[in-house]
Amino acid sequence: MNGASATPQVGPPLWLLAELTYRCPLQCPYCSNPLDFAHSGQELTTEQWVSVLRQGREMGAAQLGFSGGEPLVRQDLPELIAEARALGYYTNLITSGLGLTEAKVDAFAEAGLDHIQVSFQASDPELNNAVAGSRKAFEQKLAMARAVKDAGYPMVLNFVIHRHNIHQMNDIITLCERLGADYVELATCQYYGWAFINREGLMPSRAQLELAERQVNDQRQRLADAGSAMKLIFVTPDYYEERPKACMNGWGSLFLTVAPDGTALPCHSARLLPIDFPDVRSMSLREIWYDSPGFNHYRGDSWMPEPCRSCEEKTRDFGGCRCQAYLLTGNADNADPVCDKSPHHERILAARRAADHATAGLGELVYRNAGNSRLLFRG
Amino acid sequence: MKQIPRFRRGFRFQWEPAQNGYVLLYPEGMVKLNESAGAILNEVDGERDVEAIIAALQRRFPEAGDLGPDVREFLRDAGQQHWIEWL
Ligand code: SF4
Ligand code: SF4
């Protein structure tokens, strides 16, 4: 480990996210895939993924996520799961549940899959299917959630929360209890990718958010009193904070994402930054992590301009999210505008005001599909 | 009462050379365990009860004095965190 590396203070990537494909049968308008996914290059082959998994594990990665797009689209998924398990990863499959069958659920368990996370769009079929852009999604998700439970996996259900479903908090939690979930992720939209262009139509108002927070807290208390092990994880939108989140625990400090075409990224949305990121086909994972300019770009704090440079809090939040700084100020070096010390904080305040008056219905959102992707990037 | 701890479904305990220690892995999460937590959880096998686990640790660390109270407290906490469950 020591010796040759130019940046010996950098620890290993403990988490590896393998985005196997951008293909997906659903069209969520908050999808975190890049807007130009339809123009993405060829997907890595099975052998190339196996090599990525081996290298990552050798470097110390212990948590592995298979995501996408919809990872089930990849026919080699069972093979990749078996390889990952043999290497000693804790292996998570993050899926919409579409394309899953009871037979696959069992086969994956046999291959050594540790956990399946099924994402829902809402607590009822009508809204769920409208958000997902698919008519039969909800029923399928319910059936698969039950199959996951029956196969003995821990059950994590994920709901992306926005202004059109945030009023369903109590119903969502009841549904999860009925399905026997161990963890419920109530993840408010993060405004990158498709969610950024749809922000006005997705962002909840402060009143909506405060009500939801109260409901979640009451539910937590009720679950604790009942001795339930079901855990509620509520990720609130940082647009309502005055300090940014410590994005990815610091750039290039714990997380390594590999995109479908082999691009290695410090987080799954970093692709939108005007930075050259390395390709796993032309560089070893070790070189990528420790030595590539892309991964070293925002390590440490010497890159910071004011107000972060002289700020005491920079070791806590690292100046926030680079993607958010780029999307909202045009320069990724800037302080994340969520911070009220940022000269661009007004952008966040304007988004909050807009959320108080937004009227857009679900039908007015830009859905994530190849047609819209090509339209947005006709060039 | 004989109480037998075992790891909760979906929780995996393993040694990680890169972190030079034991970790507990669970859905999308990982805790790095300190030395004593690692030593205690290393004895959890879903077969032996708390007293047998204490006796095993006592044999492994003969210099350590009475380990009983600390081990019982740690396992009680681990149960409250839902890392382990009781058979
Ligand atoms: S967010 Fe929706 S559209 Fe995007 S990959 Fe996930 S399921 Fe597919
Ligand atoms: S000025 Fe920069 S470092 Fe300080 S709190 Fe704001 S974002 Fe964080």
From TrEMBL, chain A:
SMART domains, from UniProt? Answer: Elp3 (SM00729)
Question: SUPFAM superfamilies, from UniProt?
Answer: Radical SAM enzymes
Using the UniProt record, name the top-level EC class of this enzyme in a single word.
Answer: oxidoreductase
Say yes or no: keyword Translocase present: no
Which GO MF terms does the UniProt record name?
Answer: 4 iron, 4 sulfur cluster binding; cyclase activity; iron ion binding; oxidoreductase activity; S-adenosyl-L-methionine binding
Keyword Repeat annotated: no
Q: Which Gene3D superfamilies match?
A: Aldolase class I
Q: Give residues annotated as binding [4Fe-4S] cluster.
A: C24, C28, C31
Record keywords: 4Fe-4S, Iron, Iron-sulfur, Metal-binding, Oxidoreductase, PQQ biosynthesis, S-adenosyl-L-methionine
Any Pfam family matching the protein: SPASM
The catalytic activity, as recorded, is:
[PQQ precursor protein] + S-adenosyl-L-methionine = E-Y cross-linked-[PQQ precursor protein] + 5'-deoxyadenosine + L-methionine + H(+)
What does the record's cofactor remark say about binding? Answer: Binds 1 [4Fe-4S] cluster. The cluster is coordinated with 3 cysteines and an exchangeable S-adenosyl-L-methionine.
One record GO biological process:
pyrroloquinoline quinone biosynthetic process
Q: Which residues form the Radical SAM core domain?
A: 10-225
Q: Which pathway or pathways does this protein act in? A: Cofactor biosynthesis; pyrroloquinoline quinone biosynthesis
Q: Known EC number(s)? A: 1.21.98.4
Q: Which cofactor does it need?
A: [4Fe-4S] cluster
Q: Could you describe the subunit structure of this protein?
A: Interacts with PqqD. The interaction is necessary for activity of PqqE.
Role description: Catalyzes the cross-linking of a glutamate residue and a tyrosine residue in the PqqA protein as part of the biosynthesis of pyrroloquinoline quinone (PQQ).
Q: In which family does this protein belong, per the annotation?
A: Belongs to the radical SAM superfamily. PqqE family.
Protein name as catalogued: PqqA peptide cyclase
Q: Which organism is it from?
A: Marinobacter profundi
